[in-house]
Design a protein that fits this description.
heterodimer, A: mainly alpha, 6 helices, 70% helix, extended, B: 306 residues, alpha/beta, 14 helices
Amino acid sequence: MRKTLGNITYMRTKAAHRDPEKENSRSALVMAWRRQQMRRRAVAHVKRVSRNDGLARSVEELYDRDGRPPQNIDIEHMMVQYKRLKRQHGWLEAMVKRCRCRLRELDLVRFIHATAAIEQHMLDRQAARYEAHRAIAQKEQRGKKIPAKLAALIKVDVVREVRRHELRNTLTDTLSGQYLPLSRYIQEVMRYMHYEDIPEANRVGIDPDPEARYQFLLSAYFDMVVLVEDIESKIYDLQEYVESADLLLLRET
Amino acid sequence: MTAPPPPILILAPPRSFTTLASGMLGVHPQVFGVPELMLFYYETIGDLWRYGRSFPAIDTRVRHGLLRAVSEIVFGEQTDESVMAAEYWCGRRQHWPAREVFAELQSLVAPLRILEKSPDYSAKPDSMLRFFEGFPDAQIIYLTRHPIGQCKSAINIGEGDYPYLSNSFAYEGDQAIADPQIAWHDMNVNILNFLETHVPPAQRMQIKGEVLLAEPEAELKKICQWLGLRTDNGAMEAMMHPERSSFAAFGPISALFGNDPNFLRNPFFTKQPARKLPPLDQPLPWREDGATLYPEVIALAQELGY
């Protein structure tokens, strides 16, 4: 057998070197690359709304470096996707509304406090971020090292993005849920939402404790709000592409 | 029922002209070229799917090829609806061994010979073994490319991320340096180890990518003769038009890729003059310290005819 020189992997960088000093140097290099990658993404994120969205990125990759679409692009597919997202959006919004009503029924005061706390947290974060951007602009440090405070805020965004991706997968559970009309996660949410309407024999697996049910529904509610936002941003991106494609077609005809 | 003809597999590290080679061979009248299926990367589709979904950046690479292939072969078109149907098709087979899924696709395209190429197999020896254990009668084309050409091409995609994604690091003392030549060497070693220990000489063939590009008619004729395929003018002419493949364009929005996006954007083949290959001992353009190829890399490149 021939011998390899390194320890190559596919698409992952977790393979470590046995020598600790070499491993330190390797991981420092990987971390520097990750920081650079994250910085590139952050810059792109600032330039365009929701650039990090998977669909927008996919569509964007269709275009070449000069922004020209390929000759064989099919705008119809974009339209189909757009309509599908609109349907998904409407349906999910209805779920959010129903969940909100249910939570109000279960414990109105706690629910109001919880939503107010989340909203306040979002506002605080937004203000902190705005402040950090303003500080950079004032010092004219654009393009230089990102301050620690802004880096921390971006990190929170990245964590949210990962969570959003996880949620998106739960919504379109097409692989394991091919026999199910809805994904397992959404099914579970509906079972908790309509607990009282389910016959007692079919309540297996649902925690009967009202506190546990409230907590589950509260967390599901915020998850679904994130999902609705996610779909809205997808629709927004796609709408831009469809509109620019329409303009292009008008100009050509 | 007669057994379907044996499959053809193209093995090579990434950026070694595999897309073009598979695009050209894939439109031969007796061959059906599929996109990068990645099917043998794991034991089952379920494992592959979960792997893809864990990492958004590679999800499209992992799943789009198979979805487009199933869409086209099983459902006869590539639209969002047929891709959705393909997801269900894969879902129903999520616990099947990769071999059985591939065998089903193979029998559906028979009497044409199915042609698969997934360069990522070269980074994972067990995926190549898995393929050959499932199809011991397969014929395997080993495509090579000059190390400096391949590394430069790999560095130029995705803003130079390739060495990091493939964990391709060289060490000068204790200092790690991102260097794609390690991946070039190790992927070729993985392929050679697999071919030499498992595949009988009669079932494997080595082709230089640069020669294929410069003299496509002669090289393709040689390959077809070895594969036992037609070499008449009609067949040779067909192979000059990779753009006629059902997969030589972007797919529907739910499965856009499955192949190199540059090829999907411009799938036409234009004959190129013979490339002047750089000397193996020149300083490497991607190394700031003026380093050259490592002796092991040079030895392997020379063994491969460079």
